[in-house]
Design a protein that fits this description.
heterodimer, A: MetI-like fold, about 0% strand, B: about 240 residues, 9 helices, globular
Chain lengths: ~230, ~240
């Protein structure tokens, strides 16, 4: 009995000190806002870069091919935290851009390389006869891509794309390296105040997980909808 | 209508077409037969520039295809093509498959294009399949939709690349009968086929291809009844 009482007291103490006292829950709420923003912006930037790079890799233009290939190699070959720091301290050092913008661009550039590979593979997986049929009707190459190839490629790409956004969501936890108060940094600030060993980490682990589950569910719904022509 | 001049095509070191010259006239039905790997399909695909000739040229209505550049898209509207593997667009309904090109390329309104598609679907014997997705159709039905899709652009000539080779035997007839109907209507057609009976019945002229060349060319009666070339004789003795 006393053991249970002790656990309950400890738990309520932890919750009180880490979340309620001095409105510390606000660190988590604001952190969540920053993390979500970073993920959304970076996903859009990454998607746009990824599509362009994928198309560049698929054309016959040697220069574009080479540049796109090198971009993918460099980004996939270096840690994202190093890229973030280089982009913040070297590339955008004296521009006075908001940190959220810089971090979104950094995460977007990183994600773009992975998205590019996903899109390229997804497009190449569409049967060659589809492009031939479209071209034989008189559609131009861009029209064929837009009406015929890309809609089919999306079905191939979507599962991987979902994984990419989920990875991105968790990768934003390094935004604290450039002084952004995201979810992760929020937990560290609270921990610095309360000297709790792990409670703030448990709180954000739960939040990260919860958002990930939401994304997985949304993705599943989308995939089911796209499958209606099968 | 189509003039082929000294056509060569290589894939890397492999020489597939070794100098083909021929002419296809308006209203003519030309069937191309020959063993696998003889270059029949490659020859056909050069006629709408799905394959770029290594040398030589193809003229459609006196326009050189290799000189066209981007205008090839305009020219391809006049040349319908039907593939062995159907190549229907799986993410679109039958109706959308047929109406896409007329709407996007001919500036037809959606209603006009749909009206036309309804007529074409009736013609190929599938009046009630307009809202189905291709995966719900049998092979023979898919191929008939593919023919309707090509016809929707009002082509002046139709190219058929082994249109019945991927079909179950019981479905070959329904596709061939649609094609025969086109012949009756006077459509200019080039048909690569293994259906000797069909070639003999509807062909105005048969081209027998072997090893990248037209080895023999004649009317069906002559070519099937009295083949002159030794290789034609040996091929026909195997398939007939």
């Amino acid at each position: 009995m006393t053991v249970i009482m002790k656990i309950i007291t400890t738990l309520s103490d932890e919750i009180f000190f880490n979340l309620i006292r001095e409105e510390r829950y606000l660190y988590f709420v604001k952190g969540l806002g920053i993390s979500v923003q970073l993920t959304l912006y970076a996903a859009f930037i990454g998607g746009a870069i990824g599509l362009m790079v994928a198309l560049a890799r698929l054309t016959n233009n040697k220069v574009l091919n080479y540049l796109a290939g090198k971009y993918v190699d460099i980004i996939r070959g270096t840690p994202v935290v190093v890229q973030l720091l280089i982009i913040y301290f070297a590339v955008f050092a004296s521009t006075g851009l908001h940190r959220v913008t810089v971090a979104s661009i950094a995460f977007g550039i990183n994600s773009g390389a992975y998205v590019a590979e996903l899109i390229r593979a997804g497009i190449q997986a569409v049967d060659k006869g589809q492009l031939e049929a479209a071209r034989s009707l008189g559609l131009s190459y861009p029209q064929s891509m837009y009406y015929i190839i890309i809609p089919q490629a999306i079905k191939n790409i979507l599962p991987g794309m979902g994984n990419e956004v989920i990875s991105l969501w968790k990768e934003t936890a390094i935004a604290g390296f450039i002084g952004l108060e995201d979810l992760m940094r929020g937990a560290e600030i609270v921990r610095g105040r309360t000297f709790s060993n792990y409670t703030p980490y448990l709180v954000i682990a739960f939040i990260y997980l919860y958002i990930t589950v939401l994304m997985t569910m949304t993705l599943g719904k989308l995939e089911r909808r796209l499958r209606k022509s099968d | 209508m189509i003039k082929v001049v000294d056509l060569y095509k290589s894939f890397g070191a492999l020489e597939v077409l070794k100098g083909i010259s021929n002419e296809i006239h308006k209203g003519e039905v030309v069937c191309v037969i020959g063993p696998s790997g003889s270059g029949k399909s490659t020859f056909l695909r050069c006629l709408n520039l799905l394959e770029q000739p290594t040398s030589g040229d193809v003229y459609v209505d006196d326009v050189s295809l290799t000189q066209l550049g981007k205008d090839i898209n305009k020219l391809r509207q006049k040349v319908g093509m039907v593939f062995q593997q159907f190549n229907l667009f799986p993410h679109m309904t039958v109706m959308e498959n047929i109406t896409l090109a007329p709407i996007k390329l001919k500036g037809m309104s959606v209603e006009q294009a749909r009206e036309k598609a309804v007529i074409l679907l009736r013609k190929v014997g599938l009046p009630d399949k307009d809202n189905e997705y291709p995966n719900k159709l049998s092979g023979g039905q898919k191929q008939r939709v593919a023919i309707a899709r090509a016809l929707a652009m009002d082509p002046e000539i139709m190219l058929f690349d082994e249109p019945t080779s991927a079909l179950d035997p019981e479905m070959v007839g329904e596709v061939l009968s649609v094609m025969k109907q086109l012949v009756v209507e006077g459509m200019t057609m080039v048909v690569v086929t293994h259906e000797m009976g069909f070639a003999r019945e509807v062909g105005d002229r048969i081209l027998f291809m072997d090893e990248g060349l037209i080895a023999e060319e004649n009317t069906p009666a002559e070519l099937f009844g009295n083949p002159k070339n030794e290789r034609t004789q040996s091929f026909l003795s195997k398939v007939l």
